Each structure stands twice: as structure tokens, then as C-alpha cells.
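This part of the workshop introduces the protein records we will be handling. The question running through the whole workshop is how a given chain folds. To make this concrete, we reproduce a full record directly below:
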Amino acid sequence: MPYRCSKTFRFSAAHALTQLPPEHKCHNMHGHNYEVTITLEVDSLPYTGMVLDFGGISELWEDLLKPFLDHRNLNEVPQLSGMPLTAECLAKRIFNLCHAHWGTLVYSVRVQETPTCWAEYIRDG
């Protein structure tokens, strides 16, 4: 059985889903108080007894992810260009950035737009 640990972060940002028809409410600029949950997984625990120190997850968030997400217009962020700014696509892009740092340690990334709406990207295999 694998071990997993997760840490959730919050950020506020605006976006417009311009790929949707103009009459769709999300076509217009609007904002969310997002929650992002990063989940890491290992098959067996190392000598530390931890998948990864939660502080290590926080460092990646603070240093790599938060600066281009928090209080930004996501439509203007170069790291997100060329993709629809849906929760699904944000989850995959954040997953890819985490994967570039931690490799197969990354199991999933969940992006929550509201208390009842979220999307998740899970590692294949």
C-alpha cells in the first residue's frame, strides 16, 4: 500500500474563459479564491518516516507556484499561455511544474474554484 501526503494552498486570481461563447458567464473576467491541493505518493517510507516534509511542499509553493498565480490575471501569465484557464487545465499545468521538481513523487493536483467545484489531475500509472 502506498503512502500519500497532501498539502493545500490558497490563492486569489481572476481569469476569463474566452474559449466559451460570449453569452456564457465565465467568458467574462471573474475571480476565484482557489484552493490547490498537491498530493505526493511513495510505495515505502524513507528513513525519515515521511513522504516529504510538509515544509518542502510549502517551499515549492512559495518559490515556484504562488508568485505567478496569486492576485494575478491568469490570462496574462506567461507560464499559462496557450491553454484554456479551466480548473482542469490549471491542475495539469501545476502538476507538470511539480513533476519537473519532484518527478514520480507527485501523485495528483486538485484545483478547487468554489467550495463545491474542483478538478483533479492524477498521475498515469
